[in-house]
Amino acid sequence: MNGTQPLAAAPLGPGSLTWRYLGDSRNALLAARAGILQAMHPAINAGLQRHSDFFVNPWNRIIRSAGPILGVIYDEDSQTTGHTVRDFHRPIKGHASDGSRYAALDPETYFWAHATFFEAQIATQELFGTPLSDAAKVQLYAESITWYERYGVSMRPVPGDYAAFEEYWRQMLNHVLAPTSIARASIRKPKRRLPAPLPWMNGPWAALYPLLVTGSTWLVRGTLPPRAREVLEVEWSREDERRLHALALAVRGGWNVAPARLRRLPRAHNAFVRVQERR
């Protein structure tokens, strides 16, 4: 936790590492992974159970959340977007089944959700891109502090620098995250067929289902941090590991020949176009 340690924040803008990496379309491959890590937090699990349609349409929730989160980086009025995202979470509070209180805007709870989005950039590049150098991780984390400031929430739990964040991440994995009901359910094959996330996807949903549901569940199991896999008792074979390695090679190869527009998520792509047009 931060305590009295000064925060090593860094500016955000089109030349920043966060602009480069957060909008990378390969991050979509680990979107469900970030969601599972969030759901392993007992307070977030309680909020999802009582205030979300996660069980009814989990992919709709992921898609709804992704755009505004990207907007906190790429929108012209990014701070307003950040405050809007924060205010979405104000009603999410109450008592869990064990009687404990939870609130989405509790500083420690809210920062954990942010931490999973930050860490996902590193994990994506580690598996599907070019692993980041230590210096790049330090810079990316410093920029993430500025990103987090845009929500207008307490900065109390924010680790002061990347080294402190690494210790925070270990502490969360070892002492806070738990095999919650939503996390356990999400790493297993759904007992019922999930609906299309959005109405316009009803047509192609039959073809997309194996990739977005069955495939993503498998991918989450293989890409979770080792400690999270241990907590959730994830089964993962050598054959699974070989398939994951093959997928990573295919994604890297495809990335090298993909059109520039497909290399960024839409909100990020539009922001870069906007900047280029002004120049």
Written overview of the protein:
- By secondary structure, the chain is an all-alpha fold.
- The chain has one domain.
- It has helices at 17-21, 31-39, 42-51, 58-74, 78-88, 107-128, 134-149, 162-175, 181-186, 205-223, 226-232, 238-257, 266-278, and strands at 93-95, 101-103.
- 33% of the residues are buried.
**What proportion of the residues form beta strands (DSSP E)?**
under 5%
Whole-number total of structural domains = 1
Distance between the termini: 41 Å
> What Rg do the Cα atoms give?
18 Å
What's the SSE pattern? Answer: HHHHHEEHHHHHHHH
Please report the total strand number as a whole number. Answer: 2
Question: Topology of this structure?
Answer:
Layout: H1 17-21, H2 31-39, H3 42-51, H4 58-74, H5 78-88, E1 93-95, E2 101-103, H6 107-128, H7 134-149, H8 162-175, H9 181-186, H10 205-223, H11 226-232, H12 238-257, H13 266-278
Antiparallel strand pairs: 1-2
Describe the structure using short key phrases:
2 strands; globular; mainly alpha; 13 helices; 61% helix; 279 residues
Short characterization:
The chain has 279 residues and is an all-alpha fold. The protein contains 13 helices and two strands, in the order αααααββαααααααα. α4 runs antiparallel to α5 and α4 (58-74) runs parallel beside α13 (266-278).
